[in-house]
Design goal:
By secondary structure, the protein is of the alpha/beta class. It is built from 16 helices and 22 strands.
């Protein structure tokens, strides 16, 4: 069996004493990645079998696990973990640090564990211990997924354990190996003609298949909100999809894109904030390109919440990305990437007030995002918002990385009236709170 785990995850080894967890951990993981309950007991009591030291030992283990996950290090918990209450802290810790919890279950026969413990001088306890472990494991096994484990692997025999190998997969948002240079483009919102004009300004040319090809060595990155409000929404999605499929570009989803996806998939979402424009235009587009609505929805569905690029020097997300969430994967990370974070308060217009994450940002990575139209892109603590409101009569803007050069084209007209004047970068980060779908 190949045990495929995310490169950044919390792995809980689960099984009775004598099932081979520690041996497996030594073979499959680096010594520094494995946090052993027995070793932590020895740290606090000089005796790894001293059960009276279990509480202190797990306090040490939990503290080290927190430090590792905060630093973005894969962490393996080597303990029996046969009861739900023993596993609960690890699932909660994984959620806190936006990593996926993984369960590797050693469901070996009770007799095998008994025999192994019998011949070990450091395991001089009665057979009732393994019997209880095995019974507790089997009672709780069916609930592992409900507990929150996203990946579950079961090893039922010694042969299965011996044949298993752990394979680490990079997270989908890990593009650290992509070094650019990049052209990062702000919210398009169906402004197809301005997009093609801007790509021309950036020296992109259409190839024989009509796909916009970047200058040698460069790639485009779109910050999302391809749909809604503008005049040529299906054309915009098709252009971006073709560039992504040709490996000429990357794209992250915007909140408008996700609302469109939900509507196409039959979810009950408000047909507002320009979504009616998208649905109408895609219906008309089907006359010349049957099936493209589903193709567009499938394309959006595969988009990743944010990307970490150039050895971690660059992060691109639709609404921004706090340092502690960069390169991680969870529902909270995706939600922040789409909408930012609100305080729970509303402003004088009745709209949610967002946390000024950019003003508080102190990360080393440069964060490029959009979501809230600004009058002029301005650098704020290594972050920059490049949504200059083309669909509202502003401009469509691209940031050339690493040059930090801003290139824009004016909107050909005001396609959709703006409810407020554009803000500056700091005001946008702090004040203009958009509802989901706004």
């Amino acid at each position: 069996m190949k045990i495929t785990i995310p490169e950044l995850s919390l792995v809980a080894l689960i099984g009775p004493s004598g099932c081979g967890k520690s041996t497996f951990a030594k073979q499959q993981f680096r010594p520094t990645e494995v946090l052993s309950a027995d070793f932590c007991r020895a740290l606090v009591s000089d005796d790894e079998n001293d059960q009276s030291a279990t509480g202190d030992a797990f306090a040490v283990l939990h503290s080290i696990a927190r430090k590792r996950l905060a630093a973005g290090r894969l962490t393996v918990v080597d303990a029996t973990n046969v009861q739900p209450e023993e596993r609960k802290p690890w699932v909660e810790l994984a959620r806190e640090f936006h990593v996926l919890p993984v369960a590797i279950v050693f469901d070996l026969a009770e007799t095998i564990c008994h025999e192994r413990n019998r011949v070990r001088a450091d395991r001089q306890f009665g057979p009732h211990v393994v019997r209880n472990h095995s019974a507790q494991l089997r009672r709780s096994l069916p609930g592992l997924e409900r507990e929150g484990f996203r990946h579950i692997f079961k090893l039922p025999t010694p042969e299965a354990v011996a044949a298993a190998s752990v394979v680490r997969l990079p997270l989908r948002n890990n593009l650290k190996h992509e070094h650019g240079p990049f052209d990062i483009l702000g919210d398009v919102h169906g402004c197809f003609d301005e997009l093609t004009q801007l790509l021309g300004r950036l020296d992109y040319e259409q190839n024989a298949a009509g796909v916009f090809r970047p200058p040698e060595g460069r790639k485009a990155i779109f910050v999302g909100d391809l749909v809604d409000r503008g005049p040529k929404i299906p054309d915009t999605v098709r252009l971006v999809r073709d560039m992504v499929d040709a490996a000429y570009a990357f794209c992250v989803p915007g909140n408008h894109d996700v609302q469109f996806l939900k509507a196409v998939r039959g979810k009950n979402v408000p047909i507002a904030h320009g979504l009616d424009d998208s649905l109408r235009q895609f219906k008309e587009y089907e006359n010349g390109y049957p099936g493209f609505t589903q193709i567009a929805a499938d394309f959006i569905d595969k988009l990743v919440s944010h990307y970490v690029l150039d050895d971690g020097k660059l992060v691109v997300a639709h609404a921004g990305m706090k340092e502690e969430m960069q390169g991680r994967g969870s529902g909270k990370v995706r939600n922040f990437a789409l909408y930012g974070e609100t305080t729970g308060e509303t402003d004088e217009h009745g709209l949610p007030v967002r946390y000024n994450w950019a003003a508080e940002y102190r990360g080393k990575s440069m964060v490029v995002y959009g979501h809230t139209p600004v009058a002029e892109p301005e650098w704020l603590n290594r972050t920059i918002n490049i949504d200059t409101g083309c669909v509202y009569g502003g401009r469509l803007t691209a940031l050339r990385y690493p040059e930090r050069e801003l290139i824009s084209v004016p909107a050909m007209k005001t396609y959709h009236p703006s409810r407020r004047p554009f803000l500056n970068q700091a005001e946008a980060a702090a004040g203009w709170a958009k509802r989901p779908g706004d």
